[in-house]
Write the structure tokens for this entry.
Amino acid sequence: MLKTNRQQLVCQSVIGEITSPLGGINPYRIDPEGRSDIYPGVGGITYNLRVGDRARGLFADHVEPGVSISNFSQYQGQPGPNRALNLFACAGNQATVVSGEAKGEKGRVTGKHGGIEHVLLDFPPPVLEKLVIGDKIQIKAWGCGLKLLDFPTIRVMNLDPDLLAALPLTARKNGKLEVPVSHRVPARIMGSGIGASQSHSGDYDIQLFDREIVEEHGLADLRLGDLVAITDADAAFGRIYRTGGVVIGIVVHSDCVLAGHGPGVMVVMSAGGGEISPALSPSANICNYLDTFPMGKSKKGDRKK
């Protein structure tokens, strides 16, 4: 068991409501080959896509698994409540439906999506059937400020302390932390979201338009919820290219057709000096860890085993 500062962390409520999918005046999206079409996108309740399901090969653009929420309240004319929701909610946090037919049902936070500024939640399929757009969901936000006390140079963010404890992390004699990942992703193919000044909210995208890179790194079978290692990268205080650095993230939304976009990755660890050692593991997906700590188990469906 790795030592953390979990006893110092504050658990605080944040809240949002289920958003509606959005449509533009010009609904067509054009891919880098010049082809155009109309695709399902962000928002709403996605009934047939959850963490553990494939992130590629869908007729979709930026589709978010499960339930997408946002806080539309304004404080002094500013979207402060939604900023708080997106900054403080962490993967693994408990989410409770507080209005509508599904009131009292519980799920988990699985990720955050920048640009649209959504927090993404997973619920069992029977609960999804009872939810409607506009239902309010409250989150016990816990994890902001989380640290690994024996690895002070590794920046941790966007992780519930219980989810961190559930991950099979290993402290190596060489002073590095071994982290299981499903894939290694070279920083040179990271796109939209690169250069952001902080990584406590939002994500950045893996561009998958280069067939040779996809084949070389086995990226064709990426799944929602996969833990991935972005190599030669640093996201401790902003998402940058850094030789030798390693960023660990969770795949939060589907593939995209727009240039510069692709499956989104929410940062959960960053080590600019290479203190993280990624270890390839086919089971490195949060759907395999979310049910290992208390709250109530949910049916996995066809999630990765």
